[in-house]
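Session log. Operator J.P. requested a structure for one protein chain; no other inputs attached. Running the standard single-chain path with token output.
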Amino acid sequence: MRDERQPCVYIRASQPRGTLYIGVTSNLLKRLWQHRNGDTPGFTARHRVHHLVRFELFGDMERAILREKQLKRWHRQWKIGLIESDNPDWHDLVPGLGLPLKAPRAGSYGS
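Structure written below.
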């Protein structure tokens, strides 16, 4: 896994229009790997929020943190609209970043 340092805000979903999680990181690939391998216990693991549905890159961490805080204050429908403006079918964006999709479990999002 490459060490790609780039401030980023990301949105993960349990399923289309399901539970959402908004986070910020300086290394999106590393954070996705941590989520996938259970290295980050908590909300995303408990609620099975495993699918990357949106991310925004920033030039500095301060702006990324400000954007994360802004998005967290938004109404749920605004967040859904933002996701669907670029990803109307709620595709998991992980493969486009070079990580394989995790095998879906029966009845889960993506199966």
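Operator note: The CA atoms of residues 38 and 45 lie 7 Å apart.
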